[in-house]
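Example for tutorial group B:
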């Protein structure tokens, strides 16, 4: 549908320029077909080279655990299936559990409250000596009730008054626009608890120890110090803000003397690990506006170097952020070089690599300028083979995928 909208827009532009719709249609089809074949989309990586999930997956006796956090809009459990299948194929994982496990997340302080769903999939390679456990957090349930206030606008009472395309765009806006606003209100704490509970289950035991089809709280009793396991996050749009806020929340609890909860176990498990976050359609700069600053900033050397006076209080050894942003995504931003020190918690020891990538096709509008569908540019990351390839096997290493080697350019930065 989105490509049809772009096609129609090009038709209108050319018709206005030539005054002949029949000729315009023929020329438009020919030029678009030619541009579809010639894939010239950019892929430039600025920052440190990275290895992706593959290096950790290949480590003997180590499970790779990944938590995915979705962004704005209504999502149902299973939303990550296409991305996960592409990722598993890139990682050569051809064996999977017969069915995923589902946990209805609960609030430790209010156990009856529902905080969304955590779905866990298990993948292995053919020899079963490499294992990926993929945790998919669906938090849409938390904001769904609040968004019902706009349901009247999607009904026939109002929608029939709009042009067809405008009605589609308005429904999209009604579905996605409220979530960042709701997140700034009282539901923010519920969403962050859902993240903390998902994180707790991720660092808890193995596949056989996880419950299924149950509403349950994860507590310190569930957390086992599996020092050999590796962890990573994948997030999209608002999900990146939730991931960062969730980790900063945990870091704050760790340093406030909460020794009785599972957060002590978290510290023991995570303190010496490198835990990357792969952010798709990164929105951190925009979602920072009007927010309270974290407790600890501009103290990287104190927390993240072995000689630092607060090195023992770090949450993780290193948090590499790989931020994917399409320049034509109206809601996506690169992370400026000074952003981390000013606005992110120093206890996370964050480094940033910016990936400038066209996930949406860019068309030449017949000399009138180039254009790309901003909708495709916002939602196309998790199906882009180059994005999946970099998450799986990184860039700048011998094991990087051939597609990434051919299509993406690394500009390595040093101190």
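The residue assignment follows.
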């Amino acid at each position: 549908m989105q490509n049809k909208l772009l096609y129609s827009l090009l038709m209108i532009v050319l018709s206005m320029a030539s005054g002949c719709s029949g000729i315009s249609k023929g020329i438009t089809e020919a030029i678009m077909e030619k541009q579809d074949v010639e894939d010239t989309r950019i892929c430039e990586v600025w920052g440190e080279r990275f290895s992706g999930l593959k290096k950790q997956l290949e480590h003997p006796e180590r499970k790779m655990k990944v938590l995915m956090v979705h962004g704005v809009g209504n999502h149902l459990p299973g939303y990550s299936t296409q991305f996960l299948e592409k990722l598993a194929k890139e990682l050569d994982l051809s064996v999977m559990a017969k069915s995923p496990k589902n946990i209805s997340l609960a609030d430790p302080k209010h156990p009856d409250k529902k905080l969304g769903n955590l779905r866990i999939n298990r993948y292995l390679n053919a020899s079963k000596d490499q294992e990926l456990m993929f945790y998919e957090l669906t938090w849409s349930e938390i904001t769904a009730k609040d968004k019902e206030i706009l349901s009247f606008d999607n009904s026939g009472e109002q929608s029939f008054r709009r042009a067809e395309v405008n009605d589609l765009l308005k429904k999209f806006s009604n579905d996605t626009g409220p979530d960042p606003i709701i997140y700034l209100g009282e539901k923010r704490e519920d969403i962050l608890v859902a993240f903390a509970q998902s994180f707790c289950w991720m660092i808890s035991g193995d596949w056989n120890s996880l419950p299924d089809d149950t509403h349950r709280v994860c507590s310190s009793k569930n957390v086992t110090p599996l020092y050999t396991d590796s962890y990573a996050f994948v997030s999209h749009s608002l999900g990146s803000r939730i991931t960062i806020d969730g980790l900063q929340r945990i870091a704050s609890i760790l340093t406030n003397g909460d020794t009785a909860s599972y957060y002590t176990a978290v510290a023991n498990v995570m303190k010496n690990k490198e835990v990357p976050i792969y952010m798709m359609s990164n929105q951190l700069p925009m979602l920072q506006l009007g927010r309270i600053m974290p407790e600890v900033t501009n103290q990287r050397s104190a927390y993240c170097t072995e000689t630092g006076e607060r090195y023992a209080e770090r949450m993780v050894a290193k948090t590499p952020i790989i931020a994917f942003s399409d320049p034509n995504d109206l809601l996506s931003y690169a992370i400026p070089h000074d952003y981390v020190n000013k606005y992110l918690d120093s206890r996370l020891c964050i480094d940033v690599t910016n990936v400038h990538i066209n996930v949406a096709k860019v068309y030449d509008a017949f000399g009138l300028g180039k254009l790309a569908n901003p909708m495709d540019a916002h939602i196309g990351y998790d199906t882009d083979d180059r994005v999946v390839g970099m998450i799986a096997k990184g860039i700048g290493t011998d094991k990087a995928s051939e597609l990434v080697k051919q299509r993406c350019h690394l500009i390595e930065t040093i101190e």
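Residues 2-18 form the longest helix (17 residues). Compare this with the pattern of hydrophobic and polar residues in the output above.
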